[in-house]
TrEMBL record, chain A:
Name the UniProt record assigns to this protein: Carbohydrate ABC transporter membrane protein 2 (CUT1 family)
Source species: Kribbella pratensis
Chain segments annotated as transmembrane: 12-33, 74-98, 110-138, 144-164, 185-210, 244-265
Coiled coil: none
Compartment annotation: Cell membrane
Lineage of the species this protein comes from: Bacteria, Bacillati, Actinomycetota, Actinomycetes, Propionibacteriales
Keyword annotations: Cell membrane, Membrane, Transmembrane, Transmembrane helix, Transport
The keyword Transport is annotated on this UniProt entry: yes
A Pfam family annotated for this UniProt entry: BPD_transp_1
Domain spans labelled ABC transmembrane type-1: 75-265
Family: Belongs to the binding-protein-dependent transport system permease family.
UniProtKB/TrEMBL annotation, chain B:
Every ABC transmembrane type-1 domain range: 85-299
Organism, as annotated: Kribbella pratensis
Protein name: Carbohydrate ABC transporter membrane protein 1 (CUT1 family)
Subcellular location: Cell membrane
Segments passing through the bilayer: 25-49, 85-109, 121-144, 164-183, 226-246, 278-302
Keyword Cytoplasm appears in the UniProt entry: no
Organism placement in taxonomy: Bacteria, Bacillati, Actinomycetota, Actinomycetes, Propionibacteriales
Length: 279, 310
């Protein structure tokens, strides 16, 4: 090794780190600005230079956001909607994923093939008929419309099926010999081992539906039924550019649950992204 | 001994197998029942219904009227709708290209870091934007890119650059929305590529090093070909998402200025849900779906030449 290649390698390494640090600053900067600006007084919120370190944090915006809009109500709606979808999809997808992986029944591969085909269809291209069906069910302008139309998932079924496929069949056969029924075998043996896949699906669904804007915009009309993202956009509209620190306090509150969950369950988020790539 | 128990077990399963295969089928149907019901009602049937509705004129209230191909004829002569397809395609391609190249570049750089905590730190940084909803992102980015008071223009003013009309000029708004979408989505491609680069076998890389291949050669001749199936997957998913771009332009620019950021989905929303033209809206949806299928097909076709399967 000559000295010049050593220097070259060092320059390359330093440039690489510099690029990463700058990229990380770009990724985090807007989020940091949102947090610190939500801690400025409404009067100086939009004045530059921005305050990157909140030396005198002012928490009044967090109180004000509850006074200005029913953000507690939005929060409640979001929790109910997201919670019911997470629980509901966990049940439906675990059941069907197990059946497609472990139980033989006529038409299994055909039905699974149809599932796979629907997985590719973007939500927006079918939203009009879904809206019509919601209307026929009498669920217009109800948060439940968001739940009911999201209880089944081809992707979730696929995800669970992949996981069950890796499990040894012998365990179930042994249990059957010991006299366990089909459902008992599923519940007591296989479902208990599916924890990581269930966690991945639940977290994917939480972060996806907690942040959802499109379906709530179309399905909901009255403010009382709004979920957080829809309510926040309404808040921004109501206030104009008057006191952005209040709006940003609402934004921070809306993002917080996802960030907390990410801190504690990071590996399931990562698993959720990479799980899709294995199809 | 083990063989004997296995034999016994097999015999027992066989003996029980026959009468219970009927029970097993019933059990299978019961298990998939809920999923089949919900996927059928809220995904499968709507696909067919969307196609069917596109041949009708319907305002939701009165009875639908069959109009044949009229909606499609109207679509292909409807200037604003046609333009929205161009806008969407342009923005989507820009988003996908940037998301793939930047995501891959960052993943390669992070992968060179040996310390696990350093890798975790950068991964967290690039992933955090993905945790915010597009609504939240659109709100604070709207403030940051504000023409008069925005922080971005403030910092550009310092070295003497005059205010950039980020969201108030046609090209500016489209480009800014592309950048914001890439900023938020970069964690997706980044995480995929990091995971996939980790799976490149080290003996292959060591062999390349012994043969005297430099960093760039290793990257373009070995790493990228080996992870090309993941790149294809990322490209397909990113494109399908980008073709449905709605939240950011709807919230930040309402499709403007003019119609510079009016995407297909915004057109569809206006025609379908604001003007209550469900038939015409469905026709737009079907053409969008067809466009997505064609582009995805092209991606797979290109992949036949470019993607390396082990």
């Amino acid at each position: 090794m000559t000295e010049s290649t050593g220097t070259l390698a060092r320059i390359g390494r330093i440039t690489g780190v510099a690029v990463l640090v700058i990229a990380a600053m770009i990724a985090l900067g807007p989020l940091l600005w949102t947090v610190t600006t939500s801690l400025r007084t409404p009067a100086e919120a939009f004045s530059n230079p921005p305050q990157w370190i909140p030396l005198h944090p002012d928490f009044s915006n967090y109180g004000a956001v509850f006074d200005r809009i029913p953000i507690g109500r939005f929060f409640f709606n979001s929790v109910i909607v997201t919670g019911l979808i997470v629980v509901g999809q966990t049940v439906t997808c675990t059941l069907s994923g197990y059946a497609f992986a472990m139980v033989s029944f006529p038409g299994r591969s055909v039905i699974f093939g149809i599932f796979l085909a629907t997985m590719m269809v973007p939500l927006q291209t079918i939203i009009i008929p879904v809206f019509v069906i919601i209307r026929y069910l009498g669920l217009s302008d109800s948060p439940l419309s968001l739940v009911v139309s999201a209880l089944g998932s081809a992707f979730g079924t696929f995800l669970m099926r992949q996981y069950f496929m890796q499990m040894p069949r012998e365990l179930g056969e042994a249990a059957r010999i010991d006299g366990a029924g089909h459902f008992q075998t599923f519940l007591m043996i296989y479902a208990k081992m599916a924890g990581p896949a269930i966690a991945t699906l639940a977290i994917l669904n939480f972060s996806g539906f907690w942040a959802e804007f499109y379906r709530p915009l179309i399905f909901l009309q009255s403010q009382d039924n709004f979920t957080l993202p829809l309510g926040l956009v309404g808040l921004q509209g109501n206030l104009g550019t008057g006191s952005i620190s209040v709006v940003l306090a609402g934004v921070v509150l809306a993002i917080l649950p996802s960030v907390l969950l990410f801190i504690f369950a990071q590996r399931y988020f990562i698993a959720g992204i990479t799980a899709g790539a294995s199809r | 001994m083990a063989a004997v128990t296995a034999e016994v077990r097999e015999a027992v399963v066989k003996r029980r197998g026959h009468p219970s295969s009927h029970g097993q089928a019933r059990f299978g149907f019961a298990m998939i029942g809920l999923s089949v019901l919900f996927v059928a009602v809220f995904t499968a049937i709507p696909i067919v219904a969307s196609l069917g509705l596109s041949f009708f004129s319907w305002d939701v209230i009165s009875t639908p009227e069959y109009v044949g191909l009229e909606n499609y004829q109207r679509l292909f002569t409807d200037g604003p709708v046609l333009k929205s397809f161009g806008v969407t395609l342009g923005m989507a391609l820009a988003i996908v290209v940037l998301q793939l190249t930047i995501g891959l570049g960052l993943a390669v750089l992070v992968n060179q870091r040996k310390l696990v905590w350093v890798r975790t730190l950068f991964r967290t940084a690039f992933y955090l934007p993905l945790l915010a909803s597009t609504a939240a992102v659109s709100i604070f980015m709207g403030y940051l890119f504000d023409y008069k008071f925005g922080v971005v223009n403030y910092y550009l003013n310092l070295p003497g650059i005059s205010n950039v009309p980020w969201l108030t000029s046609g090209f500016g708004a489209a480009a800014t929305i592309v950048l914001i979408a890439v900023w938020q989505q970069i964690g997706f491609t980044f995480v995929l590529f990091v995971a996939s680069l980790m799976s490149v076998p080290t003996d292959v890389l060591e062999a390349a090093q012994i043969d005297g291949a430099g960093g760039f050669r290793t990257l373009f001749r070995i790493k990228i070909p080996l992870i090309s199936p993941t790149i294809l997957f990322a490209a397909v998913v990113a494109l399908i998402n980008a073709m449905q771009l709605f939240d950011q332009p709807y919230i930040m620019t309402k499709g403007g200025p003019g119609s510079a950021t009016t995407t297909v989905t915004i057109q569809m929303y206006q025609k379908g849900f604001q003007n209550l033209q469900f038939g015409y809206g469905s026709a737009i949806a079907i053409v969008l779906l067809a466009a997505i299928l064609v582009i995805t097909g092209l991606q797979f076709l290109a992949a036949r030449k470019l993607v390396f399967y082990q």
